[in-house]
Write a structure and sequence with these properties.
D-Maltodextrin-Binding Protein, domain 2, six-stranded mixed β-sheet, three-stranded parallel β-sheet, 364 residues, 2 domains, alpha/beta
Length: 364
């Protein structure tokens, strides 16, 4: 009996001394909601033996707050290039990538990589995942019934109070993110989307307050269901979210139509990057997960599922035809000419923007 107890104790000591990854290989992922093909996550585990713990967030503010606090416990995060990724990178929040563990980096589009390098010099910390624009998710039939003269291709549909007042009857959802909304409002007002001028910010606040009575709810993640279910006929949303809403509405067969509109004034172009937190507990598993995602067939499956374009050109031939030929998913070059990107904003200006946003949400 004593010998058996001694043997058990020795085994327990040996297991405790073994690295955690020898007992269980795991990668902890923190990503946007509805932003991956779940079957690809299952396939990764089947092929590598690495289990995926998957959490989701619905705003850049949530992600940044979690990483800024430290000890997040995550191995992979997916921040947007500006302003979140660049700010966190400057703060030392990310581990440099090891190219030797990422042979599939060669699959990425060099032109897009050069654009991303504006936020990540040398592409040291981030790997391009998906990209898209910010614009309007609309139910055209319901909007035309209430506001037949409203411009369906313009931000005025939302930001002009005379249109918003009438459309409010069928529901307006506003994205809950100052970082995403304010640059577009600046663009609509004819200002630089990166402006930090106090006078420009006052104009933004006036424009937002003018439509505040007509906003039904603030939600980033909820825009998909609000549009697809008919609770909202207009939403300021990410392109793929509005397109997903249209797919779900068709599948439900309840007569709801949803389309995505990139505003003629110009839509904000963004890039989401896969990054490894500096204190990631499983950096080898992080690299394995990123390298897996960069395979053309994997990225094609993800684009098919979430309706966002990706950074791997070879995947395009594998994307479903109705997705690959949808100009809302893959905008033609002429449309992209009107897109704009944003840069980092100084901390003082960011605080000022957040105060404007708080007053806008509160309605006072």
């Amino acid at each position: 009996m004593l010998r058996r107890l001694l043997l058990l104790a020795a085994c327990a000591t040996l297991l405790a001394a073994m690295p955690a990854r020898a007992q269980e290989r795991v990668v902890n992922v923190f990503n946007w909601n509805d932003y991956i093909d779940p079957y690809m996550v299952q396939r990764f585990t089947r092929e590598t033996g690495i289990r995926v713990r998957y959490d989701v967030y619905d705003s850049l503010e949530t992600l940044e707050g979690r990483l800024s606090a430290g000890r997040s416990g995550y191995d992979i995060v997916v921040p947007t290039s500006e302003p979140t990724f660049s700010r966190l990178a400057r703060a030392g929040a990310f581990r440099p990538l090891d190219p030797a563990l990422l042979p599939n980096l060669a699959n990425l589009d060099p032109a897009l990589q050069r654009q991303v390098a504006a936020s990540d010099p040398g592409n040291r910390f981030g790997v391009l995942y998906l990209w898209g624009t910010i614009g309007l998710g609309v139910n055209p039939e319901r909007i035309r019934a209430l506001a037949p003269d409203a411009p369906m291709d313009s931000l005025a549909l939302l930001l002009d109070p005379q249109h918003a007042r009438r459309i409010a009857r069928c529901g307006i959802t506003m994205m809950d993110s100052a970082a995403d909304v304010i640059p577009t409002v600046l663009r609509h007002l004819g200002r630089d989307p990166n402006s930090t001028a106090e006078a420009d910010l006052r104009e933004v606040e006036r424009a937002l307050m003018a439509i505040r009575p007509f906003i039904r709810n603030f939600s980033t993640a909820g825009a998909i269901e609000a549009l697809a279910g008919g609770q909202s006929c207009l939403a300021f949303a990410y392109s793929g979210d509005a397109i997903q809403a249209g797919v779900r509405a068709r599948e439900a067969g309840r007569g709801v139509t949803v389309q995505y509109v990139a505003p003629r004034e110009g839509a904000q172009l963004w890039f989401d990057l896969l990054a490894i937190p500096a204190d990631a507990p499983n950096p080898e598993a992080s690299h394995a997960f990123i390298n897996f995602l960069l395979q053309p067939d994997v990225m094609a499956a993800i684009t098919n599922h979430v309706r966002y374009p990706n950074g791997v050109p070879a995947s395009r031939a594998l994307v479903a035809r109705e997705v690959a030929e949808d100009p809302a998913v893959f905008p033609p070059e002429a449309a992209r000419a009107a897109f704009f990107t944003i840069g980092p904003v100084p901390q003082a200006a960011e605080r000022a923007r957040n105060r404007v946003w708080s007053r806008f949400k509160a309605g006072r």
